[in-house]
Amino acid sequence: MASESRFSLTRRSVLDYFLGGGILALLGTMVYPVFRFLLPSRFAVAHVDTVRVASTSEIKPNTAKLFRFGGSIGILVRTPGGEYRAFSATCTHLSCTVQYRADLEHIWCACHNGHFDLFGRNIAGPPPTPLAAYDVAVRGEEIFVSARKV
Ligand code: FES
Question: What is the chain's mean pLDDT, rounded?
Fold first, then answer.
């Protein structure tokens, strides 16, 4: 009889368990991001100077391709005139990833309607500064992007 009452659950105790679990889950979602921010990542981000981004046949005029550049994202643009240009794809406003708009023939940030010309200059919207520019080199059929030396 005593063991039966030990394991019996009342409606009140079930609700207490759910409420307690909900509070723990809420605290976990609030505390975990703080720990992730404070503790260094176990995986170091590789320092990258040059990456192969694409072959020349992949990128048609008036298109672009996003690519990984170390721990960040870059955008390789082939202008309507056929030139290759590369920039950081991180918007200088609030760090959204920019994209290429073929209809506008320039780089655009969808987050707050920021616009950058084909030299990476901020031309409209809230971005306060130009996109960081990278160097582009075409070797044979391959396109390489490098960090710009200052
Ligand atoms: S983050 Fe790009 S315009 Fe705001």
Answer: 89
48 Cα to the center of ligand 1, angstroms: 25
CA 71 from centroid of its chain's CA atoms: 9
Give yes or no for residue 114 CB within 6 A of ligand 1. Answer: yes
Residue of the nearest CA to atom 1 in ligand 1? 94
What pLDDT digit, counting tens, does each position of 101-120 carry? Answer: 999 999 999 999 999 999 99
Closest CA to 68 of 140, 141, 131, 145: 145
Residues 69 and 49: their CA atoms lie apart, in Å, by 8
Q: Is the whole-model pTM more than 0.70?
A: yes
Residue 126 CB less than 6 A away from ligand 1: yes
CA of 149 to the centre of ligand 1 (A): 26
Residues whose CB is less than 8 angstroms from the CB of residue 56 and which lie 6 or more positions away in sequence, other chains included: 138, 141, 142, 143
DSSP three-state, residue 26: helix
